[in-house]
Amino acid sequence: MNNAHDAISLDSIRPEVRARSSYPRFEIDHVQHRLQWNENPAEFPEKIKQEILRRLSDLKWSDYPQFQPYALMDQIAALNNVGSDQVVISNGSSSLLRTIFWATIQTGDAVVVPSPTFLQYNMLTEVCGGTYHDIPFVEHDAGFALPTDQLIDLAQTKQAKLLVICAPANPTGTVIPAADIERIAAECGCLLVLDEAYAHFSRQDLAPLLAKYNNLILVRTMSKAFAMAGVRSAYLLASPELATEFNKLMGAFPLDHFSTVATQVALENLDYISQATDDLIAERNRLTEALDEIPGTKVYPSGTNFILVRVGDQANALTDKLLQDHSLLISNMASYPQLAGCVRISVGTRIQNELVVAEMGKFLG
User: Which of 36, 262, 288, 346 is a good FRET partner for 211, with 20 to 30 A between their CA atoms?
Assistant: First the structure.
């Protein structure tokens, strides 16, 4: 502290925020084989890019975008057989998750999750002053199973405000059966948030459940299956009543011209997205089989665009070796106690995947 003004400035920040670690400066190296962020290896098609740019050239850039992108909301509603008043749009699913937490969680409110899961849920709970309660996935020979009974019991016991499930799950890749989701929605007694970032890769569509359960919230992103992580566009689907409240916090201009037009054009080209997703799923299955042949590995089934692999006490050395020798980034899961000794590998291009298999085979063999 340099003076009293510094103390006043920091004292104005909520203690839940000050207690969090800040993000270090991190430069993205586009030369590296980045198989740790679950990006889509298929670049957005040039033909569709050109159509987006053509439409952008017809817009007046000095004007603000629409107060809300109503035409896009109508488009999303029609594709999902819901009303336009059930759609909330934002610049990325992380923004939508923040909105949900800000709208619901007050000091002491309980949030329930299965673990391991996306770390942002814990951060948002803490910053909002809530209490975080997790139940471990059940590991078995065939992978991981959702602890459905325990989640329902805990949500009821803690009188939870939110029960949050990444479906399919990150970082395990687990596909959650629709019957389990429906049972939780019916019995949990709170809002059920499904983070569906990877849903396209499991071919699972839970939107029909919205007609039955007004406590259900589906959060979807354009970053993964649509190969638009750099565009920053996402939406959620919920009951009209919930969507109205969330839109109050979104404020004006949730998307700029570029994100709005890019999303509209992408959603007009679902045939391409479907074929690209089929291709990625086929490559994921091929990579799964190849990794499974490496001695000393346990490969978990995945309904996402990444694969979780248990390699034991060599996980740290393996990730360091791949990065040092081949500029190949995969994720070490050491921050998740249940996944110590595991690595997570995003499905990349055929060349990248073959490099991963070859170098892991040499190191572990």
Answer: 262
Q: How far is residue 169's CA from residue 198's CA, in Å, rounded to a whole number?
A: 8
Measured CA angle at 196 (ends 193, 199), to 5 deg:
145
Residues paired with residue 329 on neighbouring β-strands, in sequence order: 34
Distances (CA, A) of 300 to 126, 217, 234: 31, 28, 28
Indicate the pLDDT class of residue 17, thresholds 50, 70 and 90: confident
Is residue 5, in this structure, part of any structural domain at all?
A: no
Q: Give 108's contacts (C-beta < 8 A, 6+ positions apart).
A: 129, 130, 131
- Residues 111/105, Cβ–Cβ less than 8 Å: yes
Do the bridges between strand 306-310 and strand 298-299 make them parallel or antiparallel, or are there none, so unpaired? antiparallel
Domain that holds residue 236: 46-268
Distance CA 267, CA 291 (A): 34
Task: Examine residue 283 and state whether it is found in any structural domain, yes or no.
Answer: yes
Amino acid at 148: T
Alpha helices per DSSP H over the chain: 4-11, 15-18, 46-57, 70-80, 93-104, 120-127, 148-157, 178-187, 240-250, 257-267, 270-292, 315-326, 350-364
Residues 107 and 233 in one domain: yes
Contacts of 186 (CB under 8 A, 6+ apart): 213
- Asked whether residue 205 falls in the same domain as residue 239, the answer is yes
Q: Looking at the structure, do residues 275 and 180 belong to the same domain, yes or no?
A: no
| pLDDT tens digits for range 22-74 | 877 766 676 678 999 999 999 899 999 999 999 999 999 999 998 899 999 99
**Chain segment 171-228, per-residue pLDDT in tens:** 999 999 999 999 999 999 999 999 999 999 999 999 999 999 999 999 999 999 999 9
Are the C-beta atoms of residues 116 and 122 closer than 8 Å to each other?
no
Tell whether 165 and 232 lie within a shared domain: yes
Query: Is 266 in a helix, a strand, or coil?
Result: helix
- Domains identified in the chain, total number: 2
C-alpha distance from residue 267 to each of 125, 165, 225, 363 (Å): 33, 25, 12, 43
Confidence of residue 306 (pLDDT cuts 50, 70, 90): very high
Nearest to 100 by CA among 164, 36, 160, 53: 164
Q: Does the residue 313 lie in any domain?
A: yes
